[in-house]
Amino acid sequence: MISESSSWSIIAKLPSDRVRKWLARVLPARPVVRIALLGLVLLILAFALSRVLSPRQRFASFELPYVQDFSDVDIKLWFSDRGVWSLREGMLAQTANLEQPAHIFAPYRLAADQPYHLSVYLRLAKNTRSAGISFNAQYPHLTDQLHRVTINRSEGEGVNLVAGYTDPDGNFVNQVTVSLDTDAQQYRLDLYVLDKTYTVQLNGQTLIERRPLFYPNGLIGFYSLGPVRFDTLKITTAKAEQPSEQIYISDFDSKPGGAGWVPFSGEWKISQGELIQANPAAQDAGIGYQGGAFENYVLKVNLRHLIGVGGGLLFNMASPYQLNDAHMVRYSDQTNSLFWGYFDAAGMFFRQGAQALPDPGHEPRQIRVYSGESSYDIFVDDTLVARNVPLQRSNGHIGLITSRSSVAYALVEAFPLFDNTPLVLVKTDERLPPSPTSVPQTLPQDAALPKTKPAATATTGAVATPGPTATPLVANSPLVTSGADRPWRGVFSGDLRTSGWQVISGRWRFANEALLQEDSTGYDLSIVYTGGAFRNYTLEVALSHRAGNGAGVLFNMPYANRLAGAYMFRYSDRRPGGVFWGYYDKTGKFVGQGYANVDPPGASRHVIRIVSSDASYSIFLDGILLASDVPFINGQNFGYVGLITARSASVFESVGVSAVGRAASTPVPSAPAVIPPLTAPGRYGGVSGFPDQRIVGGKWNITQGVFTQAVPNPADYMLNTGIYASNYTIQADITLPDTPDSGGGFMIHMPEQSRKSGAAIVRFIRGGEGVFWGVYDEAGIFRGRGSAKLNPKLQGGSQLRLVVRGNNVDIFVDDRTIASGVRLPRAEGWISLVAYGGPVTLANVEITVGLDQ
Question: From the centroid of its chain, how far is CA 231?
């Protein structure tokens, strides 16, 4: 029974004076009446609260583009959990230094299936331990069901970029951790959320790519453990493809625009999509970009002069707030010329060179600077103006500068130096004098390269390992033989020092019948096989990455102790989805000849094949032709072979040399020129597996018809069955490890045996809690078509069965129909088994082709 005193305490908490007075008169009545009336009141209050806090609450959708500069937003309307949130100096600030995390969410929802790009600036305090973005939060469990990307700082682990999600119990599940080299106070965080994956960029660099989504679109918010400030939140519609690997691209055409730019002299403003310095009388009027510092990059600036002539750019600035310790390239405000040099620590300018040029007038012009490790090159409107100018600083901020002129800047871009610069073939200004800092030279041209793969320009990042002078290999040396006369395969066992392999740099060793390079931080770490040299041969290397992306091969090396003169092909260490190739000149500087976009290597096994003939070479990756008839510019068509890595720890499983086989001059299309014949009707599988099966990626063990993929890292690992069909049934009992992101299934209707592009996929996800299906477009980017939740089993696996009829597929799990009549982009193709992570086991695998299904 409720006592009278407790009844009054409840009355005192009621919000309405009229209700309190009425209950005060009624409550002295009999206890039964008091209890009944009090229960009625509480029921009414509970109903009211349920209407306010109901999980069915509807949120307005974000109207994209959405820009929040935190100048006048009412954050009382936002949902917060812990922390002290307020607006300070035009930013959203969380000022409490709590031991528990603080959350806040915008009161809007992202529309279902809306791909979006979110960007925000973070300003960390000295005692910030973690701060970042919460996204796809599910109402009403905002803090328990979400994805999160944060910058974490701790004494023991340094600074890390961490991405993951919370499980149904609210526990955070780490999907990926990336170590950061610096501990800055300000970062720009970009998030690209597509159909089934998300990608993260930090200061414009893609550090986390294509991680799977576990929650659909929902609410957006911020997270902090310790004080932090958030500035300029932008949400826009994302393109379907993944973001490019540009380090920075200006936003002068956005509203608001010019984020991160800080003027230190002159009168700078944004007008009609351009950044303008409006005072034509100002001398050395400068503005710097404080969003990040760059190294080994290309800076591209599009400008036009409004009044006078004196526009230019700054690069490798020690500080974005001053000219001191900065390099400069700009038009002269007194003569028709361009000049370049640097400011010292005291702000004194030292000229490094100048070149007469036509009056730029008021037409748009473009200045490009290629900043490497020790020197830089300058281009104006695709004309090489200066080359190999010594650098005083090899890294820093970027900026713009004018002198006695008003200049409008339409675009500023910065992107990686090596392999993400699709340049046109450059023109050389014939007026350039031959000098150490200004050399008239046209970059190597290769008319035989595919027209969709423009030739890369010479770069300045790779320098040969210093060593004693050595005599280069000569063509008539008895060491030089053809691949047909002396086929060779490396044996990775015993003592490395007596095996014929000579280390130039890096930590190389034999282990488990493989050759390992274990330093994941160094550049151009290489090893050479000195037991023989080759001419007219095929070099084939199987490799995988343990950390980073940057493994490749060396061939036609004239020296056994340096890179000078050698040719190279490798994965990009800066862009996981890229490869590039070229040669080192006699000074050890790398000269690019081409590049291509491929699937990111991940931890999968990949096979590089180089076909070296008398005048040119061809490149194959996983059986796919990337480039043919690439010329030997320096005439080096023979030499030693070797291996190389850059910022990656790698495993080389096999290295071999054989006869040329397919001539490099034979044109081979990137897709099969002849459609493979359909596999004959019948049942395939059983204890012996498939007669023409081949491993595309991962480490597969096949025992008595049981296929097990062992690599644990989350990525799609394929085993192609060698079956090409249109109408068939495929089924397998699939057992997954107890990890939240593991999966397994089938890739079907593949146009090529070794690539995802154009194929369809059906596989289990989330450790068996669901199944999804979709297709890969021509760029190899996944496009989801559907998914379904499954009841997870306590033990054992589940059977996945597909019934394929031309361009339709029916999907079954444990004989339960999941989807029917799913459309496929093709009517036939290759069939592969797929494991996402490991160990994943596929047992009782059977493919029935063309029979009654």
Answer: 24
Contacts of 136 (CB under 8 A, 6+ apart): 110, 146, 147, 193, 213, 215, 216, 217, 218, 219
Tell me: do 356 and 401 sit in the same domain: yes
Which residue range forms the structural domain that includes residue 769? Answer: 682-849
Specify the amino acid at residue 519: D
Residues 713 and 806 in one domain: yes
- What is the C-alpha to C-alpha distance for residues 730 and 732, in angstroms, rounded to an integer? 7
- CA–CA dist 838, 681 (Å, integer): 32
Lowest mean pLDDT of 273-287, 526-540, 676-690, name the range.
Answer: 676-690
Model confidence at 432: pLDDT above 80 = no
536 Rama class: left (phi>0) / alpha (psi -120 to 50) / beta: left
Integer Cα distance of 358 and 755 in angstroms: 50
Q: Residue by residue, what is the 3-state secondary structure of 72-104?
A: CCCHHHCEEECCCEEEECCEEEECCCCCCCEEE
Rounded to two decimals, the pTM is 0.35
Residue 79 and residue 37 in one domain: no
Q: Mark whether 28 and 66 lie in a shared domain.
A: no
* Closest by CA position to 313, among listed 387, 380, 257, 367: 367
Place of tokens 């040119």: 616
Q: Say how many Å lie between the first and final Cα of the chain, rounded.
A: 70
Residue 422 and residue 518 in one domain: no
- Of 16, 37, 53, which residue is a domain's last? 53
Q: Judge if 300 and 155 occupy the same domain.
A: no
pLDDT band per the 50, 70, 90 thresholds, residue 302: very high
User: Cα(589)–Cα(585) distance, rounded to whole angstroms?
Assistant: 5
Cis preceding linkage at 140, omega within 30 = yes
Are 139 and 175 in the same domain?
yes
